[in-house]
Structure formats: C-alpha cells, structure tokens
Task: structure prediction
Amino acid sequence: MTCRQPALRSSPNDDQPLGDSKLMADKKQAESAMETGTVPDEAPDPLGGGENAEFPSAVEGRLKELEVRLETKEKECRDSLDQLLRVSAEFENYKKRAAREQEEFRKYANQSLLKEMLSAVDHIELAIKATAGGAGDDSTIAEGLNLTLKELMRIFEKFGVTAIEAEGQPFNPEFHEAMLREECESLPANTVARELQKGYMLGKRLLRPSLVVVSSSPPES
Result:
C-alpha cells in the first residue's frame, strides 16, 4: 500500500524575498521608536568615529574664537563710550566757560569809559560844594548840578557802578588808598576818618579806590 505524504503548506511570507523582510522589520522598529521616543541601541552615533570625531573640537575652538572677538568688541565699545562721555563733559564745560566769559566781557566792556567819566562826577561834586548854601544864581546852579549828578549816578548804576562806603569803616587796602594819617580820639585806630575822593566798584571789580584819611591813636602822654 502506498502512502501519500501530505503536501507542505507554504507560509504567506515564503514568497517574499529576505530583503523585504528586513525592510519591514526596520520599518516596524522605526515606528516603534517614534511612538516611544527612544532610539534603538544599534543606531549609529552621527558624531562618533571616523572623520566626524574632529567636529566637536572644531566647534569648540570656533566658539572660543568668537568669545574672544566678542570680548574685544565689548571693550572697544566701552572705551568708545567713555571717550564720548568725556568729550561731552568737556564740551558742556566749554559752553559754560564761554558763557561766563561772554557775560564778563559784556559787564566790564565799558570799564575804561566809565572810569574816565568819574572825573566829570568829581568836578560836579566839587561845584555843588562850592555853591552850597548860596542864594540867587548860586542856588539855581547848585540845583542844576544836583540834577545832573543824579542822572549820571543813575546811568552808572545801570551799568553796575556803585560808590564805596568809606567814612567810619575800618581801613581796607583792597578798597581804600590812604593819603594821610591824623589823630582822632573819637575813632579807633586804622579807621577811615575822612574821604578825599570817592571810590567806585564795577560789579565785583574795583573801578577806583577811595582816597582817604586814616585815623591813628594819639601818642601816649
């Protein structure tokens, strides 16, 4: 009796080439890695081995070079800013100094002219003293001279000219010029006893010193 051997059933995958099976396995592994967020152990290191081994050190060297250049530029910027601030401060000081000098020039530009005009004031004051207490024409002249003197003093004050108070004040060589010394029991020593000629200030400057007589202590008996 003859027995028949049953025919072997072929697997559905038997007809597929081995290469296709490998691709399918890799595909499934990749899909699984994407779902789990893991990388297969056999995944190659993109920076490992071969020519890629020098890549990290090259990047690190380039970063250090850029850091050095950045520090250099930052220092240059700081230096430029400091220089700009210094120049700005110097310019502000220059403007203030120029404004002060301009104001000083404006205030004292007429100093020589005003000083010359003081002699006219002196003559008017002498004429007033000469006609003081007179009657008739002398009184009229004195009145006119007083009006003229007041107008001159108004103009002087407009330009910053003021008279120096001298009589009864302690002698001050910065503002007074001693012409004589005389004994005076009613005043302390080194006090202005009389004023021979008025002194004047132009702002804070001395326009003309006062010519004065200075008191001295009487000799001890």
User: Anything to note?
Assistant: Residues 5-13 have pLDDT under 50 and may be disordered. The CA atoms of residues 64 and 164 lie 77 Å apart. DSSP finds four helices and six strands in the chain. The helical segments are 18-36, 55-108, 111-131, 137-158.
